[in-house]
């Protein structure tokens, strides 16, 4: 049986997807939601915190919690080198520690990002990327089992994009949301930094050339060590 807080997450995502809670609207107050779901404030806040982390909601202190508007930026495949190639191209040493490698049933949140049904199987992978021995990026990735039945821990210690290309698949584009984030206790420990250290959070949804979504990733970068360059092209 799924935890109560995850059931609340699924229900809120369904209400957002159906338009019952429209983009930009404020959710009912915490006390009202506690009554609706018959849960404690602690349980409700756990659900809301997860939805904020996954970029479905945002909070304004002293006002309330709102449904986030879709602000995905789309970048062409010609700019998608991937972290592995970017680091290697700079002559630096990249190593990876895989913290989690498991197969799970997709919940509504992950399914909505990967265009899967709620119970389709997905890989859940967490890894830390090190540059010249220093932890610089933490990544949490979900990938459909149906696309990558032979995916292994060894593959995820290297480049997942190279693995995907080796299967004859063509990566078309990546939709990305870039946000500021302060390191919590877990991220601070993984990145060998202090709590509230400024990070760059990048939520990425990758698509193949036929429109199939092959990954949903949440990445955390140290702002002091990593930057992004964005290019705009005039097609006139």
From TrEMBL:
One of its GO terms (biological process) is negative regulation of DNA-templated transcription. InterPro entries: Bact_HTH_transcr_reg, Chorismate_lyase_/UTRA_dom_sf, Tscrpt_reg_HTH_GntR, UTRA, WH-like_DNA-bd_sf, WH_DNA-bd_sf. The keyword Transcription regulation applies. Keywords: DNA-binding, Transcription, Transcription regulation. Signal peptide: none annotated. One of its GO terms (molecular function) is DNA binding. It holds the Pfam family GntR. Residues 2-70 form the HTH gntR-type domain. This is Mannosyl-D-glycerate transport/metabolism system repressor MngR.
